[in-house]
Amino acid sequence: MKHQGKIKQVGRYSVSLLARLGRYELAMLLCVAVLSGGVWGFVALADEVTEGDTQSIDESLLLALRNPADLSDPIGPGWVEEMGRDFTALGGVGVLVLITLGALGYLLLARRYRAALFTSMAVPGGILLSTVLKLGFDRPRPDLVPHEAMVYTASFPSGHSMMSAVTYLTLAALLTRVQPALRLKAYLLILAILLTLLVGMSRVYLGVHWPTDVLAGWTAGASWAAMCWIVMRWMQRRGQVETEESLPDTE
């Protein structure tokens, strides 16, 4: 009986271990797919934009969001336009800095000091990449419709879209690596994706970006977040960054 009990215990442990390894490998494959697909998508899109092949569809989609009788009027009631400005603010530098500092505070309070250090380099690094790409392509802003928000930089890729993807997706990816509860991991990722989509769509709705600018920002930002997740997972395996099991929960 004792031997049977031990065999059952070993069996349960083996099944649990295999399931856990399988989940990690699936997550790794998904991140590699996002990284490679995002890079390929950005390069292909940038090539099409540079050659002017996307101009027709960009103009059609942008005009579809405006009142045909008055191009200065976005479709929908006034409160939808105001909500668009609220959503676009979620991708602004000030908001993203505050959210990043909040995440760093959480990691520090949770005693994930090395994870906090990694985060403090990952997010600013992605924002720097966004700035460099905008300077490199230097695409003019849309001139078909009046802008419903102030703009200061070039159009491709969308800075708000890329920075929100970099910030929200990177923070979600990193926080899930130190969060043991599966439901909280899923919640963080879903929330990050939703915020990123809302910011990007609001930029087109307000007329300050071509749709392809936003798509390029999403692909580049998602690629950066996936790369950060892969790097952090590798560092955790080497013991250089805390894992979800490495530290006890603290009150």
From TrEMBL:
Membrane spanning stretches: 21-43, 87-109, 116-137, 149-175, 187-208, 214-232
Enzyme class: hydrolase
Keywords: Membrane, Transmembrane, Transmembrane helix
Gene3D superfamilies in the record: Phosphatidic acid phosphatase type 2/haloperoxidase (1.20.144.10)
Catalytic activity line of the entry: di-trans,octa-cis-undecaprenyl diphosphate + H2O = di-trans,octa-cis-undecaprenyl phosphate + phosphate + H(+)
Its EC number(s): 3.6.1.27
Coiled coil, from the record: none
Domain of life where this protein originates: Bacteria
Residues making up the signal peptide according to the UniProt record: none
Domain Phosphatidic acid phosphatase type 2/haloperoxidase residue range list: 113-229
PANTHER family named among the record's database cross-references: AT30094P, SPHINGOSINE-1-PHOSPHATE PHOSPHOHYDROLASE
Protein name: undecaprenyl-diphosphate phosphatase
Organism: Vreelandella lionensis
